[in-house]
Amino acid sequence: xxxxxxxxxxxxxxxxxxxxxxxxxxxxxxxxxxxxxxxxxxxxxxxxxxxxxxxxxxxxxxxxxxxxxxxxxxxxxxxxxxxxxxxxxxxxxxxxxxxxxxxxxxxxxxxxxxxxxxxxxxxxxxxxxxxxxxxxxxxxxxxxxxxxxxxxxxxxxxxxxxxxxxxxxxxxxxxxxxxxxxxxxxxxxxxxxxxxxxxxxxxxxxxxxxxxxxxxxxxxxxxxxxxxxxxxxxxxxxxxxxxxxxxxxxxxxxxxxxxxxxxxxxxxxxxxxxxxxxxxxxxxxxxxxxxxxxxxxxxxxxxxxxxxxxxxxxxxxxxxxxxxxxxxxxxxxxxxxxxxxxxxxxxxxxxxxxxxxxxxxxxxxxxxxxxxxxxxxxxxxxxxxxxxxxxxxxxxxxxxxxxxxxxxxxxxxxxxxxxxxxxxxx
Length: 426
Description:
Strand 5, helix 3 and strand 6 form a beta-alpha-beta unit. The chain has a four-stranded parallel β-sheet with strand order 6-5-8-9, with helices on both faces. A three-stranded parallel β-sheet has the order 7-11-10, with helices on one face. Strands 1-4 form a two-stranded antiparallel sheet. It is built from 15 helices and eleven strands. By secondary structure, it is of the alpha/beta class. The protein has three domains: 65 residues, 2-Layer Sandwich (Alpha-Beta Plaits); 278 residues, no CATH class; 65 residues, Electron transport complex subunit B, putative Fe-S cluster (3-methyladenine DNA Glycosylase II, Chain A, domain 3), CATH 1.10.15.40. About 1% of the residues have low confidence. The chain starts with 10 loop residues before the first strand and ends with a helix. Helix 4 packs across helix 6, helix 5 packs across helix 11 and helix 13 packs across helix 14.
């Protein structure tokens, strides 16, 4: 790995608020957090912006950044593309038409639901799986944190990630192209903004995988939109003319929704919560789940309704989405038109690459370090207590070899040394 690579991360650390409590370190799925000098630090190449540290930090030292509504000023024509999970954030009396109308009142000129793009992508996923039978199971590319988790922790499974763009990207492409053509504008004058439930989507727009540049121009948190709408919810003008998505697309906002929207005789598995995802990926790596054609994997508990930018309780939001989906008339859930987009617009433009943690650019030096790590790990107690500031004894051994820690920082070894000194004195 090129150590000069600079990554964008939505997840950040507010060091002054950090108490060094180790909650985040213990929960990080990629061992990206260390505690040094009583403060947490994030290893950039390991971080996948899943937000798990934000969920678990009792001191609110971790936070996530996104764009604000001021970013709209940079474009002549502004389009909002809200995530399907937005449906569960507001009381049902507002209705989808009210949510979309509220976005217009926030300063957007137009709205196109990502749920609409999700229906189109769902049909293409089914088509792709049927046409490509050598790989089983395919893994959804919809969750950026899961994609980056595989790049960092399971590089052997990169070929299993279905090489298709996300509903967010498809929706952005359609919205920008249609508006530019309809209004006789340059596409550069049209700004498309994703209303996001999670920091991983912010990172995927600023630093995309599978493409050099994202078709999305900015990301605005669900919580910011919520604050703008909730205080005058009963005064918002409802816009039923803006509603395009049917129940299939709306259900993408919760776990299992993606799978339920994919038609055909395809055997599917759904998993949510980053640590549950890891357990399933371990089974995929061991070839234990080849009976499945497709795995919907989402980092957030409950799916996108569990994203940290959301406001509503995820269980309440999930129930609302399910209830609203049942009330949508069948004609709204019409067949999507794959032909509206070119074939190559569904495919990632660049091949996904692994992000393994390289011990040293020189292969011989890296091998030497691996041997030293094994030697040091054998000396350690194997308790994974975290008192050294590392999540596991192995990660501590790695840090020692990399010159970031010292063996005597292990409390168990320190106690043993003290006992030896005491015996020596006697």
